[in-house]
Structures are given as structure tokens and as C-alpha cells.
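Q: Hi! First time doing this. I have a protein sequence and I read that you can turn it into a structure. Is that right? Here it is:
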Amino acid sequence: MDFPLWLPAAALALQTPAPSPDSPASAAQVHRGETVVVTAVASRVAEAVDATPATVTVIRRQDLDRELARDVRDALRYEPGISIENAPARFGLGNINIRGLDGNRVQMLEDGIRLPDAYKVGSFSDATRNPFDVAMLSRIEVLRGPGSALYGSDALAGVISMTTLDPSDVMKPGARAGGIANAGWASADKSLHRDGIVAGRVGGAELLVGASAADGKEFDNRGTNDGVGNARTTPNPQDTHGTAQLAKVVVPTAIGRWRDTYQRYDRRVRTDVLSLNPQSAKTVSLFGDDGARRERYSVDGEFFGLGPVDRLAIVAYRQQSSTRDDTDEVRANTTAQCLSANGTVSCRRQARFTFDQDEVGVTAIGQSRIGSRPLLRVWSRIESRTAPKTSF
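A: Yes, that's right. Below is the predicted 3D structure, encoded as C-alpha cells:
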């Protein structure tokens, strides 16, 4: 494990005026009653999508609700140039692909914090970059094309920036409390999804607590061969279970606000891999038990009118993630070494793959006006990331 590596970065850019971040709605009016969607993924500050030279798509909460999105594939299924990796034989949904590139070449952020790295090797492991629950999101912003100048080398293919729900997203204007409750069932994988979110105002603070859970089976198909081995066409028997929790405290100040966030995501998938592919020809039984967990604590603030600084946004966080893939394989008619050679011995091979990552970081973005038109933006990031702990 490497000693924690501090990676400071700073950049300056002079650009034409963008909508004022403290009142994006007023800056997003073109005609009376017509509101332009505001994004921040292309330049890291709020601006109208139509004024952004990059190819950006914003998927809002109402879009996710209208499409009954249960997972990232549902949320992005109508986005051109974007696909979701799928391994139905065991691991299920995987990395997001933008214009032919996926994995760690797509930068993925949640509340401005980068998600853990992806890693997989062979057919016994798969640590993906999608340990999150769509039910806890208020919007998804998609930047197609290189974004490395702003986000580092991980953004070679593009950026997926997600924002979790705030209390103001749940409560109506002027209300002291509000809530969201959803439940759904999908026949494709016999899955039951349910989530609940409540928010309220206590004194001068706003609070939010949310939780979701999903249980399902394997995805159905039109296969007819229910045998064991490579010729099998029906789905492998599978049980899936996922949970997510989100808690926030928002405290307004005279010049902005502070926000504390706690988030946790857990997923477990158990699969009887009757297809056995692509294992040894001697394999007669294969069972997979796969789990992923991510936990994040963060404190962020947004302030306006700090002397020459029109807007300052800062976030400090710690994020821990863990992936564990257990494989139980039985081989027959092999040797005592349990290889693929011919023999008379039956043996069992048990493999465990783990991938753990711990991240601590601080990011700050400031912007100031120079004169009446140009806008000076300064951003920097200080981040400590432990080298992923991998064992097999």
C-alpha cells in the first residue's frame, strides 16, 4: 500500500459570463414561463445547458420518476452513445460505456465526489463503478467527450455527475415537512423495489432521511435449454438484495449554507452458475456469492459575496468501498491437484476476490467577476487515496 498521495491541482480560466450560481433560475429564463435547465458538469459552475459548448444531458428527478427508473440502466436507456455493461450469467449490471470507452475511463461523481475505481480480472471478480441507488438521486448530468482538463485522466470518455436529494427537493415551498414513498414490482426479474424519504425543518435547519431496498431474482429470457453446462440457455438461478440509506442536515447561514451528508449502499448477489461457462471442462458445479458496499461521509458549504469572491464551494469527505466475490467450484474426474487434467478425483476449489478502497479529500471551487463581464474561476483539489487492496 502506498503512502497517502496528495494531489493538489489548480486551474484558471477566463470565460464569458455564466448564469449567477446563487440564482440559477433567474439566469435560466429565455422567455416568460420558459425555464432552461442548468448544469455544472461541463465547467464545474452553474450555467444553462443551451449555453454550454459541450455535449451535455441533464436527467432530472421528474424524468427518473416518469420513466420508472429502478437502476442506472433504466435511467440512461434513452441516452444515445451510452450503454451499460451486463453480465447476466453472474454479476449483472456493470460499468457505464460512453462512445466505446468504459470502466475507469469514465469519470463518475456523486455530489462532486468521485466514485471508487473499477477492477476485474478473469471470470471470478468484478468490482464496478455503480454502487449507488437511483432512488436517492435528484438529477444525473452526462458529459460526452473528454473532460480531463477539469476532472483528470479518468474523464477520457466523459463524465457522469449525480446529485443526491436535498430536503428542498422533497418539501414544497413554505412547507415544514414532506416525504416521498414508492414501491414497484418488475416481472422481468421478479423484483420488488421500495423506498421512502422524509424531510423537515427544525429550527433553522433542514433534515432529510431516506432508505430503499430491492429484492429480485434472475432476469427471465426465452431460453429453453434448462440443462447444466455451456449449452444452457435459460437464466442461472439468482437471488439479489440491495439497500441504500441517505441522511442530510442543511444549515443556512447569512451568506450561504453548510450541509452534512451520510450515505451507505450495500448489494449482495448469489448465483448458481449452472452454465459453468467459461470454467474448466472438469467443472460440474459453480456457485457465486458477490457483495459490494460503499459508505461516505461529507461536509460541504456554499457561500456568496465573500469580498472579491462571488461564490465559494468547498467539500471535505471520506469514502470507503469494498467488493467481495466468493466462488465455490467443484471439479470431477481430475487429479489431486484439482487442475483440468484427466483423473479419478473429485475436488473443490474455493476462491475469494476482494477490492477495498479508502478515499479522503477536499475540493474547493471559487469564482469572481473581473469588471462587468469576464468571469474568473479557480478550483483546486487535495485528495488522499489509498492504493486499492486487492487479494485473490
